[in-house]
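quick one before i forget lol
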Amino acid sequence: MVEQFVHSDIEKLNERIIEKSTFIEKCLTELSSQIVGQHNLIERLMIALLADGHILLEGNPGLAKTLAIKSLASAFKVSFQRLQFTPDLLPADITGTMIYNPGKASFEVKKGPIFANFILADEINRAPAKVQSALLEAMAERQVTLGDSTFKLPVPFLVMATQNPIEQEGTYPLPEAQIDRFMMKVKITYPQYEEERKIIRSHTNSSPAHDVKPVVSIEELVEARDIIKQIYLDEKIEKYILDLVFATRTPELYQLKEIKSMITYGASPRASINMALAAKAHAFIQHRAYVTPDDVKAIAADILRHRIGISFEAEAENISTDEIIKKILAIIQVP
C-alpha cells in the first residue's frame, strides 16, 4: 500500500514537473544562441540556480565565463554585477559602507554591488582574505550588515566565482573551509574545433548580435525550487550518496586502500547535502519527479572536486582529485 501511495504521488508530481519545467528548454535555447560550446557550464549554472547554491569555475581566460552568467541574468531578467577581484580591493568595495551626509548630519547606508541577483566574482583568488571572507559570509548568510543594520540579499542570489589555473603568482588561495561553501567546482575546457568555427563566424558576422531575451520569471524560479524539494529521493539513492562521500573519508572500508595515502581529508557533510540537492535539480532539468543513480553520477565530480584534499604523494605522482573520484565512482556499487 505504501509503495502504491508513493508511486501515485510520483506520477502526480511528474505531471506537474513536466508542466512547470518547460522554461528549462526555453532558457537553454536562448542561452545557446549566445554561447557556443559550453553546454556543461550552462547546465551547471542552471543546477546551482535551481538548487539555490553557488558555483566556482576554473578555466583559462576567454572561455565565455562572463558571457554565460550575464546571459543567464538576462534570461531571468534579474540584476547582474561583475566584481573584478584585485589585491587592493576592500570588503566595503563589495558589501557597501556608511557614508556621512553633511546636510542631514547623519550617516547613510551606501549599498555595494553585492546587492544584485547574480554576481560574477572574477579571479576570486586575487583578493586578500578579508575580501574573500566578506563575499563568502554574504553567500552563506544571504545578508549583509552595514553599521547597525542588517540587509537581506535579493532572491534569487547566485555567486559564480572564477579562478585562473595558469597564473598563481600574487594570489591568495581560498582556505578549505571557505571553498567548501561553494556547491560545485566546475572545470571548463576549450571548445571543439567546429564549435570554435561557429564562435569565429558569430563574432565576424556583419549582422547584429542576438540579445538574450527574458524567458523566465522569478516567480517561476521560486515555484521550481519548491517543486524540486518534493522530488523523490529513494533510500537506496541516499545510501549511494553517503557511500560516495564516506569513501573519501575512509576509503579502506570501501576496498579502496590504494587511494588512502592519496587523500589528506575527505568531503564534509555539505557534500552529502549538496549532492542530494544537485541530483534533484538535475532530475528536474530532465523533467523527472525522482532521482536516479545517473543523476548522482552526473554531478558527483563537481560536488566532490573541491572537497577532497590530496597528499604530497598524490601530487608527486600527478594524481588529481578527478582521478580519485573516478576510482570511487567505479568501485561503489550502483543501486
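fyi Residues 1-5 have pLDDT under 50 and may be disordered.
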